[in-house]
Design a protein that fits this description.
Elements (H helix, E strand, L loop, with lengths): L4 E6 L25 H10 L5 E7 L9 H10 L4 E6 L6 H10 L2 E5 L4 H8 L4 H15 L3 E7 L7 H11 L3 E6 L16 H17 L5 E4 L2 E2 H6 L16 E3 L3 E4 L4 E4 L11 E2 L5 H10 L2 H15 L7 E2 L1 H8 L18 E2 L23
Parallel strand pairs: 1-2, 1-10, 2-3, 3-4, 4-5, 5-6, 6-7, 9-14
Antiparallel strand pairs: 8-13, 10-11, 11-12
Helix pairs in contact: 1-2, 2-3, 3-5
């Protein structure tokens, strides 16, 4: 079968920056690292599980002690798209050359012009260091995507960020409205208003159109219109009549830096975990999860959808944020609305297309219209 599910590996919690919004709580003080042997077996087993894309992230993945070895293993797995998510401040020429040779895409986070970006990222000179890293990657022939988090603080900088991305020669701009997750919860008052979000959607669309094919641009999040038409995009897949013909699915497997293996959402409460790297090979744990664990997760997804999506006030639904927040509360056992999704066959891991590939190193992306 076609393979386009995603495996997202948070190689380490350590990061050389301490960004104000970090959804993973990365910092220089953290020391967690995934075991190399477990990562290697997971990467090699991935195609047999329906996984068609790898994301190596963190923390800062380039700080992982055996990053080059992991990259080489990932490159040996045929037919799988490979992406590294980095702040690019420590990218060296040899890193750019390695990633180009192995066929990686790279996502780099840039959140504004130098003064704002440096303050947001907690390091003087962070912007210029990232800019230098992006230049090395682009010159080496690595396809680079810029991911930018937009809040009320830097809303007016979007055009400057877009102009910088165009001049840098990157292939794509992904725009993440600030989420109430991780350290982002401490600045939730800076989340965009509905009016600002609508303007941002138009600006993003205008950028892609005006660039005449030089860059693509997308908002990260779920289109409300799309989610209403296709609840299965919100991981709701055990009703009746899904157009994909599946009754159970996992579109994305997230392995956190502490070893916890989660379905779909990076910040999900760990009581919904698939397991832990200490519990054995990835394939065995996923198989067990579908028989013992998936039903509770499926119910969480359906309850979250019913409670939030139909009446969500904005055109973009922050699904991962809502699912993570709802996972920390109890889910009732009462009846849920059958949204007409699923009910035919069980897929071990669901297939997804590049259009819906994880964006911004961890959040699902849907068309905005």
């Amino acid at each position: 079968m076609a393979s386009s599910a995603t495996l997202m590996l948070h190689l380490t919690g350590q990061c050389n920056l301490e960004c104000r919004h970090c959804y993973m709580d990365g910092s220089p003080r953290r020391r967690e690292q995934l075991p190399f042997d477990w990562i290697e077996q997971a990467l090699r087993a991935a195609p047999g599980l329906g996984i068609g894309s790898f994301f190596l992230t963190g923390g800062e993945p380039l700080l992982y002690s055996r990053f080059n070895d992991i990259a080489e293993v990932a490159a040996e797995v045929e037919g799988v798209a490979k992406t590294v998510c980095t702040n690019a401040t420590i990218v060296r020429q040899r890193d750019a050359d390695l990633l180009a040779r192995l066929g990686f895409d790279v996502h780099v986070s840039i959140d504004g012009m130098p003064e704002y970006h440096d303050g947001f990222r907690g390091m003087d000179g962070a912007f210029r260091k990232s800019e230098h890293g992006v230049g090395l990657l682009v010159d080496a022939g690595v396809p680079v995507t810029i991911t930018t988090t937009i809040s009320r603080e830097n809303f007016e900088q979007f055009d400057a960020i877009a102009d910088w991305a165009l001049a840098a020669g990157v292939k794509r701009l992904l725009v993440q409205p600030l989420l109430d997750l991780g350290r982002g919860a401490s600045i939730r008052d800076q989340q965009l208003s509905t009016a600002q979000l609508n303007i941002l959607i138009m600006q993003t669309s205008d950028l892609a159109n005006a660039s005449q094919g030089r860059i693509t641009a997308n908002i990260i999040g779920g289109s409300k219109r799309f989610l209403l038409a296709h609840p299965c995009a919100a991981y709701v897949c055990n009703g009746g009549g899904c157009h994909r013909g599946v009754s159970a699915e996992i579109k994305k497997v997230v392995v956190r830096e502490d070893g916890t293996i989660l379905p779909e959402a990076t910040n999900l409460d760990h009581r919904y975990a698939i397991g832990n790297v200490a519990d054995g090979p990835l394939g065995d744990q996923i198989k067990h999860y579908f028989s013992d664990g998936y039903a509770a997760f499926d119910r969480l997804c359906r309850a979250t959808y019913d409670e939030f999506v139909p009446d969500w006030p904005d055109p973009i639904v922050p699904w991962d944020q809502l699912l993570a927040m709802r996972s920390r509360t109890e889910v009732s056992i009462g009846p849920l609305v059958d949204r007409g999704c699923g009910g035919k066959t069980t897929a071990p891991i669901w297939i997804r297309t590049d259009t819906h590939a994880p964006a911004g190193c961890g959040m699902a992306s849907q068309p905005a219209a």
